[in-house]
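Summary for the funding panel

The consortium committed to producing paired sequence-structure records for every protein in the target list. Below we show the first two records in order, beginning with the earlier of the two.
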Amino acid sequence: METTGGIVGFRLHRVLDVHAGFSHRHEDLVMTGIYQDGTTVKVRIVSYTINGKPASASADAAMTKAFEHPKPGTAFQPPFDPRYTGGYSYRTAGPSTIAFASGVRDEAHGSGTFAYDASHDVVWYAYQPNALPPHATFGTILDQRSEVLPNYWAVTHETQQYKGHYGPFAGAGLQEADYSGFSRFPNLESALRSL
């Protein structure tokens, strides 16, 4: 928690591709946002296209709401965050690597591993969520972290992969997200003005 404290701005570029039978969906999203103690509190969409066309106002609003007010049980609760350790069990998985598991059946929990550096900062974590999006039967998520500001660690790249079925068709989804442009603010008000 001490390395995710404070008010920090960021930029996100997310690309999503979903295939099922003859159907294909491609989303390209760019947004700026504000973290407060590591939690997203406000975002502003810079651009959002679906299959090459600008998203509708309702799609923009839904995307904004998903980031600012995630449904309970959907925002991942990292097993290395002291606020959430009660939801996990742990075991050693090799040098500087810890395996974790949770019996909580929602998207906010999962089972996997995380690795840490010599200063005990988590540099990546990979897991299978305990609950999956509609039509998915398998999914893995990999997050890479680094010190993006002095004494502030954040996810810089995330890869989500899913497999499943839509009706009689096999399907797959891949989402890649890059986080950049991190900056500190003295308070939330000044951060919100920057958006």
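The next record, for a separate protein in the list, is shown here:
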Amino acid sequence: MKWAIIVLVSISALVFPIKTSVSFYYQKGFNKVYFWVYLYFFKVFCGSIRLEKNSVAINAFGRDFKVKFIDLYKNRKKISFPKLMALTEASVSLQCGEGIEPARRLFLFSCLSNVFKALKPAVRRKYPYFKSKNSFIVDERTEDEYRVNVFVTVGFNVLSLVITALSKLIGVIFNGKDNSKQNRKAC
């Protein structure tokens, strides 16, 4: 009976969905974009991203990391979104102060609204459970400032991570064997 419970709990843990969220915050006048990473409702870590002359400076875990733009460009194919993960939610909140011209606010709000409306069907085609919520607010308390808050949620389960890791491992094994055969033929 104990083994049946252990097997049932193990299978449930593999299939149970895991919800990871990332929140970004930018305010005019700051030179950084702040971010928070959550697992369900628990904050896992936070930090900031700052653009520099030839690199991106990331502050996380109390340490500074610098990544050069050329390195990001060279490694762009290696960074991929696992296929078994699903984008489930995205929301954008934009706050503008009353000091910004009304015509400029209206133009900014309408452009962003149209971009989100155009992108939503394309995203929903790939991720049918995708939800989005966008809000545009005129804040009387701030004069000449604007704030942007982006919140993105990704859902996955442990089984999808295992399948992705195994497929990468099998690809490395087969590519390694293919390369060694080619090297033998060249000799």
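Regarding this second record: The mean pLDDT is 78. The two ends are 60 Å apart (CA to CA).
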